[in-house]
Amino acid sequence: MVGIISSKWTLPVLYALKDGTKRYHEINKILPDMRQKVLTDTLHKLERDGLVVRAVFAAVPPKVEYELSELGNSLLQIIIALLGWTKAHVQEVHIAREEFDSKSADE
Fold it and tell me: What contacts 47, CB < 8 A, 6 or more positions away?
């Protein structure tokens, strides 16, 4: 189960879907450093895990949209909380690292 969130791109893709339904190219535009194959694979894995819902509409060319499932949205709320914690405590972490590094240099 930890594998669901330990993938490098899982959290960014879920976060990219935070504002609602998106088409593939919209997600790709939000995450320009992500290769297309990796995005495709990540979306398939998230769909398989029940975090993303994929909807295909009969059109030429076919229209495909992705959105967070209820389960995916519940995970997104945790991600947002983690981001909030990170922003609130980033300075403390930097200070702790500097103190640790200075102690390590003295030894």
Answer: 53, 54, 66
* CB contact set of 46 (below 8 Å; sequence gap of 6+): 10, 13, 14, 52, 72
Element (H, E) at 73: helix 70-106
* Block residue for tokens 């535009």: 29
d(CA 25, CA 27): 5
Per-residue pLDDT tens digits for 73-90? 999 999 899 999 999 999
pLDDT tens column, 44-69: 999 999 999 999 999 888 899 999 99
Residue 69 C-alpha from the chain's centroid:
14
Cα of first residue to Cα of last residue in the chain, in angstroms, is 40
Q: How far are the Cα atoms of 7, 87, 88, 102 from residue 98, in angstroms, in the given order?
A: 29, 18, 18, 6
